[in-house]
Amino acid sequence: MISIKEALARVQENTAKLDSVNVNLLNALGSVLSESIQSPINMPPFDQSAMDGYALGGDALVYTVVTEIQAGASAAGKSLSRGEAARIFTGAMIPEGTVSIAKQEIVKKEGDSITLIEEVREGMSIRKKGEELAINDIAISKETYLTPAAIGFLSGLGIQEVNVYRKPKIAVIVTGNELTKPGEILLPGRIYESNSATLTAVLKHAGFDSSLVTVEDDFNSTKETIGNAIDQNDVVIITGGISVGDYDFVGKALAELQVEEVFYKVKQKPGKPLFYGKKGAKSIFALPGNPAAVLTCYYMYVRTAIRSLIGISNPMLEEREVSLLHDFTKKGDRAHLLKAYITPEGVQVHARQSSAMLSSFVGANSLIYLSEEDREIKKGDKVLVYILPI
C-alpha cells in the first residue's frame, strides 16, 4: 500500500501526452496547444482610434472638420493638415497627419468647426499598429491551455484552426448486481446506481466525452467488457468489483488481460482499494464502488491523468493552506481526504464523511488533506486544501 503522494507521482510518471491533432478553433476550448502560434498580422493591423471623437491634424485652436471615417472604412489616401480634423469612431483607421484623437465629450462643435474644451496630448487615444502584437511574433506559446479568452484572441488574429493535443477517448464501466437504473422499480436488496451519472457529469463538466457500459458480476462478462473498452479507448474507468470478495471480478479480469499494475491500494480514506494500471499507452483505473470514494478518487487521480494526457502542465487540483474553523480529530493511520467548504474565514469539515454518502459532496468546494501522522487538529491550524473545480 502506497501513500497519496506516491500514488500521484506514479500517475504523472505514467501518463504521456497524446498525439497532436488539427482542430477548428471553435472546437478547441479546453485543449492545450501542441505548437506555438505566430501572429499572421499586426495587432492592431493599422493605427486606429480608441474613441468616438475627432482625429486632429497638428496643433491648433480651431479645427475644420473635412471628412468622416467610420469603423471598417479605409482611410487610405486621406490625410489631415494642421488645423484640419476628421470625425472618427472607435476602431476606425486614422488618416495620415493625425497627431491625436479628441474624444467627443471634450469637443465643442459649431457647423464644420470644432474647438477643444480640454487639452489633448500628442498620441492620445491612438492605438498604434502592432501595439499589441507584431506580425510573426509568438501570439500564444506551446503548452498553453485554451480558455475562452485565448479562443477569442486567436479569432481576432484571423486564425481558424490550431494544433492541440488530442482529447482522450474515455470509457466508464459500472459493475454490481445490486445496482438498479433510475426509473426502474427498486427491489429489496438493491440500490439505485449513481456512479455512472457522477462520472459522466464530472467528465462532461471538464470538457470530455465518455461512453458508458454496465456489466454484471460475472468473470467472463467482466473480462470481455473491460478488454473491449481498453481496445477502443485511451482511459478506462471502472467502478466496483476491485476488492477481494467472492463476486469481485475486476482485479482477476485485469490480470488475465495483462494490464500492468502501477499500484493497488492507497493508504487513504476514502478510496483505499484503488487500482491504477497500464496496457501499452492505455490508462486503466478501477475505483471502489462507494459513491463518495469514486468522486474523491476521480478528482485526485483520474482527473490528474486525463489532464496530463492532453498536455496540461499543472494537472493536479489547486492547493491552498487554509485555517480550520473548528477542532477535528482524525482516527486511524490512513491519510484522510475530507469533504469541506471554504469560506472567507477558513474551511469547515462536512459532518458526514462516509464513503457511501455522496450528499456531503453536494455542498463541498474542497478536500482537506490530513496526513497519516495527523491526529488532533485545532481550530485556527493551517491545513492543506485541494480546491474542487466549479
Task: Give an account of the 3D structure.
The strands form eight sheets. A six-stranded mixed sheet has the order 7-4-6-5-9-8, with no helix packed on it. A six-stranded mixed sheet has the order 16-13-17-21-20-18, with helices on both faces. The longest helix has 19 residues. It has four domains: 158 residues, Molybdenum Cofactor Biosythetic Enzyme, Chain A; 55 residues, Alpha-Beta Complex (Molybdopterin biosynthesis moea protein, domain 2); 80 residues, Molybdopterin biosynthesis moeA protein, domain 3 (Beta Complex), CATH 2.170.190; 70 residues, MoeA, C-terminal, domain IV (Beta-clip, Beta Barrel), CATH 2.40.340.10. α1 runs parallel beside α6. By secondary structure, the chain is an alpha+beta fold. It is built from seven helices and 28 strands.
Strand order within the widest beta sheet: 7-4-6-5-9-8
Using the 3D structure, state the CATH architecture of the largest domain. Answer: 3-Layer(aba) Sandwich
Please state the CA-atom Rg, rounded to the nearest Å.
30 Å
Overall domain count: 4
CATH homologous superfamily identity of the largest domain: MoaB/Mog-like domain
- What is the helix fraction of residues, given as a range? 10-25%
Specify the number of helices.
7
Helix/strand-derived class?
A: alpha+beta
Percent of residues in beta strands?
25-35%
Question: Could you tell me how far the N terminus lies from the C terminus, measured between alpha carbons in angstroms?
Answer: 31 Å
Mean pLDDT: 95
